[in-house]
Design a protein that fits this description.
The structure is a single chain. With 133 residues, this protein is mostly helical. It has one domain. It is 78% helix and 0% strand. The longest helix is centred in the C-terminal third of the chain and has 35 residues. The protein is elongated and about 60 Å long.
Length: 133
């Protein structure tokens, strides 16, 4: 069962990071082409992968702590670093606008921690319900 949840968690995380990139591009009236979406998403996907590997995310994929938190922090930190190193997101000479860091950190927290929280609650309630039957 854990192996299945590991794959599901990885896919959900990746889809949510791509959704984050698509929403960001759309809100800035940028093209939502495959190449454009990839350019925006890959720094965060790389950060996610590092976090997933560091925390061995497939072992406890639904845990908010440590899995979700480590994956989230790595996604944001490495994603921002790669954006700066590749010259993405430069606004009027500012390679990393604070407003973007705040929005990305909050949205990715809601995405990467939120679904794990909901899944954990649903599974916990389901286990309790079966125990009473």
């Amino acid at each position: 069962m854990t192996r299945t949840w590991g794959w599901i968690a990885a896919v959900v995380d990746i889809v949510l990071i791509v959704v984050f990139a698509l929403v960001g591009r759309s809100s800035h009236a940028e093209a939502t082409s495959l190449a454009g979406t990839w350019t925006t998403a890959y720094p965060f996907l790389a950060g996610w992968l590092v976090g997933w590997l560091v925390v061995l995310g497939w072992r406890r994929p639904l845990r908010v702590w440590p899995t979700g938190v480590v994956v989230w922090v790595a996604t944001v930190a490495i994603g921002m670093l790669l954006r700066v190193l590749t010259g993405q997101g430069d606004v009027a000479g500012d390679p990393l606008p604070l407003s973007f860091v705040i929005v990305a950190t909050l949205v990715l927290a809601v995405f990467l921690l939120g679904w794990r929280t909901v899944a954990g609650l649903v599974l916990r309630v389901g286990r309790r319900g079966r125990g009473r039957a």
